Amino acid sequence: MLNLLWLVPFFPFLGFVLLVSTSGKMPKPWTTMIGAGSIGLAALTTALIAYEFLSQDMTSFQLHLWTWMEAGNFAPGFSLYLDGLALSMLFVITGVGFLIHIYASGYMYDDEDFPRFFTYTNLFVAAMVMLVLADNLVLLFLGWEGVGLCSFLLIGFWYKDPANGLAARKAFVVTRVGDTAFAIGLFLLYKHVGTLDIQEAMIKAKLLWTEDNATASLICALLLGGAVGKSAQLPLQTWLPDAMAGPTPVSALIHAATMVTAGVYLIARNHELFLLSPDMMYAVAVVGVLTLLMSGFTALTQSDLKRVLAYSTISQIGYMFLALGVGAWSSAIFHLMTHAFFKALLFLTAGTIILSLHHEQNIFKMGGLVKRLPLPCILFFIGCLGLIAVPPTSGFWSKEQILNATWESSTGGPLIWLGAVLGAFMTALYTTRMFCIVFLGPSNGDVHEPKGFKFVAPLVVLAFLALVGGVFVETAWQLPLSNVFPGGHAPHPPTVIVVIAIATPFLGIAISYLFYGKRVFSAEKFANSALMKPLKTFFDSGWAMDWFYDLLLVKPYQWLAKINKKDCVNLLPDASSAAAKILHAALSMTQNGQLRLYVGVMGTAALFVIFVVVFL
Amino acid sequence: MTIEELIALVPLLVVASISVILMLVVSFVRHHRLISLITLAGFIAAGIMVFQSMGQPAIQITPLIILDDFSRFFIVMTCFASVPAVLLAYDYLRRSEDLKEEYYMLLSLAVLGAVVLAASNHFASFFIGVELLSVSLFAMVGYMVHGEHKRVSTLEASIKYMILSGVSSSFLLFGVALIYLNFGVLTFEGIQQKILNGTLNGYGMMGIAMLLIGVGFKLSWVPFHMWTPDVYEGAPVPVTAFLATISKVIVFALGLRFLHESGALGLFNVQAALAFIGVLSMLVGNGLALMQDNLKRLLAYSSIAHFGYLIIALIAASSASATNKALAMEAVGFYLVAYVVTTWVAFGALSALSQPEHGIEAENLKDYRGLFWQRPWLAAIFSVALLSLAGVPLTAGFIAKFYVFAAGASYTLWFLLGILIISSAIGLYYYLKVIMEMCKPAEDENDFQKAAIPFENKLILLVMTAFVLYLGISPQALIESLNSAIKVLM
User: Fold this and answer.
1) A476 inside 8 A of chain B by CB
2) What's the rounded Cα separation, in Å, for the pair A368 and A437?
3) What residue segments make up the domains of chain A, in order of their start?
4) What is the CA radius of gyration of chain A?
């Protein structure tokens, strides 16, 4: 059974090939069958493999498919590597992915490019599975880039609006910065450990470097660069809010549940390398905590429903980074999983709401939806509970683990912990604000709720998972991560610390409810006060990061491009192409079709060759 | 001749008997499909028989023929690569007005020549093989000269090829004579002993130089390449494809065997001449192809460049280190196989759009404009072939070029590798230009892209494309069988 592991990436890839080769000429029901069915089969395979893997108590399983090419030490193979970490990721990718595909088959049904949508998402799932199962860094990089490509294609899915194309380009360019760092990190790692096999590289790295080695730190820093690009963390987070230009199921699938967690996976996969460098661990934690705070503030000022969710994604991934930084590896993966549940739920419900309101995304034009959209309201409420981490929803368990680990860890500490708790407070604040504005208050406009199995079933399943997934993992069934990550005792910070961490979100909910639900205080007045107004503008722009990058990078670059219109660097290639053309023109004259010239050339050349061989 | 030797010789006899059987059949009944099927069956049977005997010990049959794994490898390749030659010709002839059946006799004789060449380690069989191949090719190039819609350039190409090939054969023969004058033997291994004994003198050197000239002509190495574009353009597509694949590959394989077994490859002067020819071939081949808008000429120039790249691996095969030598020989073998399958795809695509019934072949670049929108599959397959020729990863051409590069690097041929990089960059331009043309929006009605593709042609395209991709993704199987093939030369 385990030997069928290759089927997991194969099914989505086959779906992609089938869809792309029929170039959208298939009937729509077939497209749905192939598009969503392939993911379903992958999920089924994952479940069967998981059953065998877990029931046999295996640590890891390696499936060598074939060696691509062998040249000396350089022998990248097509090998898959399954361990608890990869398996946990597979659950999220195929399981949550399947639910989102079912939903998408309803959501996207009326789109004229329905098949193209599934073509891209199937390729995306195949690439993501490849990334997770890759046994060596070359294959991992292949999946990494494939995921980036699909993200680009899907953000710009509605390419007829230039703004969407720009958003896609921005996402591609910004993540490319991270990818470059990642690639350099890979080269450096290969140069020092001499192998591309991930497990082997980790073992060799441990033998090669002692703690705090500068080279190991540098490699970790470069890998972190790749991770922050893909996972939209500071300072490369600017692409994610704009990526909401894609269809909502894409936001759920790629920009909440799976792709953006690739950076988390990368660091978790290479955790032994990071353990060699406490400085970089600390850096990861700091990146996480700064990101979660920053995006929390920004989420509070947004008026677009999907952008609020986008910033909350950035912030929640910040928690995962924090967990990685403080060495709570399993907690990071746990949070990744619970986050996938409630964030996919939130995004898909948001999709239903947006569709009901005829593609209205501005939360201030919603309002009073609680009566008119009761089921989405309940589902969204459950998602919000998960996001705020109200006990006993799934988000609570994972976030609590992270906060506790932060307090005790040597790379964390009280200050970082305080930031994280403040972040939890902010989360409660903006989530309650979003919920109150959307669902409470006066009604606005007419509503047309999309009905049907495809719109409801996935949401109900996700809501169930968001509610009890956490408690299930916490009590009944552990994630199979104990063999992957170094074990440690469960953190037990002082009770008061735990209580503060649990109580803070409730405080946030209460304050936010007073502002937006009960309207005891006026949020507008507060925001428009002399002190807050500039701050609000500042937060609203995402801490002016776009402006800053525009000033620091884009403008100078454009200026440089302008003054260098003729491109002095290009002179050499231009000259060489001119030289090639001259060469061509000169040589063409010899091919005049006349036999006497041909024989003459041959005779002369023969003399020359004889001269070289005999007399040289 | 013992009975074992006779049994080992059966595949060669099968190929030889095809033409005899065909002559007999034709005198009773002219049936195009039957004739082509007999030819096909003969090639496949011979190929399978030799394939079965791979791995058995080498057998020397008379001083003329050697059947070891090296020759078996190339005989198998010849036989199987001749299958598309039959299929493509069947499809082409069926649609043209000319006589059909005699073509297969010429084809089977040419293949016989190739098989003899692959199994030769003696100058007599070498010369017989080369002449069998060339003389059949004269006739094949100029085969379709009848009918209302004949192509005028065909006869011209045939005569040019005949005269120039005659010149090269005279060099070859004179070279053999000079070598005999010096050494008094005609077997490759005999020469090696004489060179080791120190009997090599000016006559022998001149003989080797003249052999290089003769072989260089067949491989269209620069500066013996002048015939290539004209003949490629003039010959009907199936003949061009045969000329481009089997006839060249086999001569190269034999060249490797001769240079290696005779020890001539180790001589500094020979290497210098080869390097000189290689640099010229790479630069001139790609330079000539640059702005070319006739696809058959473009493929001709590209083949010049490809055999220039191969020279790097050939020189590297003189390495003293056994591993480096094995690497270089593997490189040669892989490159030849990759080149053959890729070229078949390219010519298969060319033939798919050609209309022999009107005497028109799809050789102009503008015929391909917008093909991607009319025929996405065909355009995709042709693109795979072009990318493989350019050496883009995940195709056979990439692995082949990588191998050549690795072989050259292991022998530290940095100058030649520099030229390889520069000329590959030039090459990329004209391959991509064709792909770009296919992606442009279609202009007006284009008859070339309308006609249905015959089944045989589709089969060739699919199978050969599958090979190109398979070798690019998983080349290990071929590398392993190459390992055993080159072991006999080590």
Assistant:
1) no
2) 8
3) 280-349+375-540, 549-615
4) 27
pLDDT (0 to 100) of residue A69:
63
- The complex scores an ipTM of 0.90
User: Region A182-210: what's the mean pLDDT?
Assistant: 85
Which amino acid makes up residue B19?
Answer: S
Residue A479: burial class (beta carbons within 10 Å; 0-12, 13-18, 19+)? middle
CA distance linking residue B302 with residue B298, whole number of Å: 6
Instruction: Show contacts of A491-499: CB within 8 Å, 24+ apart.
Output: A491/A328, A491/A401, A491/A404, A491/A405, A491/A407, A491/A408, A491/A409, A492/A404, A492/A408, A493/A404, A493/A407, A493/A408, A497/A404, A497/A407, A497/A417, A498/A400, A498/A404
Supply the pLDDT for residue A24.
Answer: 67
d(C-alpha B274, C-alpha B266), whole Å: 12
Helix then strand then coil, in percent of chain A rounded to 5, is: 75, 5, 20
Q: What is the DSSP string of B226-266?
A: THHHHHHHHS-HHHHHHIIIIIHHHHHHHHHHHHHHTSGGG
Cβ atoms of B324 and B410 within 8 Å: the answer is: yes
Closest alpha carbon within chain B to A588: B288
Distances (CA, A) of B248 to A24, B254, B337: 43, 10, 12
Instruction: Strands of A251-306 (E only): list them.
Output: none
Q: Which of residues 22-61 of A touch B (CB under 8 A)?
A: 23
C-beta separation of A348 from A458 below 8 A: yes
Instruction: Measure the CA dihedral A554/A558/A559/A561, to 10°.
Output: 140
**Segment among A23-32, A77-86, B153-162 with least mean pLDDT:** A23-32
Q: How far is CA B291 from CA A552, B286, B309, in A?
A: 43, 10, 21
Distance, in angstroms, between A165 CA and closest chain B CA? 22
Q: How far apart are CA A366 and CA A440, in angstroms?
A: 9
Q: What is the largest CA-CA distance in chain B?
A: 71
C-alpha span between A83 and A105 (Å, rounded): 32
- Residue B202 is nearest to which of A605, A612, A614, comparing CB atoms? A614
For chain B, which residues make up each domain, given as ranges? 267-490
pLDDT of A426 > 60? The answer is yes
B contacts of A602 (beta carbons < 8 Å): 164, 167-168, 217, 223-224, 226
Q: What is the DSSP string of A217-245?
A: HHHHHHHHHHHHHHTT-TTSTTHHHHGGG
Non-local CB neighbours of A332 within 8 Å, separated by 6+ positions: A264, A268, A320, A321, A323, A324, A402
Using the Cα atoms of residue B138, residue B140, residue B141 and residue B143 in order, give the sign of their dihedral: positive
CA distance B390 to B384: 10
Sign of CA dihedral B225, B230, B233, B237: negative
> Could you tell me the pTM of the whole model?
0.71
Measured between beta carbons, the chain A residues lying within 8 angstroms of B402 are 69, 71
Judge if the upstream peptide bond of residue B393 is cis by omega within 30 degrees of 0: no
Nearest CA in chain B to A599: B164
Nearest to A291 by CA among A533, A543, A549: A543
State the average pLDDT over residues A239-267. Answer: 85
How many CB atoms neighbour CB A569 within 10 A?
8
Q: Which of residues 68-107 of A touch B (CB under 8 A)?
A: 68-71
Reading the block at residue B134, the tokens are 């060339």
Distances B277 to A116, A603, B166 between C-alpha atoms, Å: 51, 15, 21
Q: How far apart are CA B312 and CA B275, in angstroms?
A: 8
Residues of A in contact with B181 (CB under 8 A): none
Q: What is the pLDDT of residue A75?
A: 66
Q: Concatenate the DSSP letters of all residues of A114-142 into one string.
A: HHHHHHHHHHHHHHHHHHHHBSBHHHHHH
Cross-chain residue pair B209–A610, CB shorter than 8 Å? yes
Q: Cβ contact (<8 Å) for A584 and B290?
A: yes
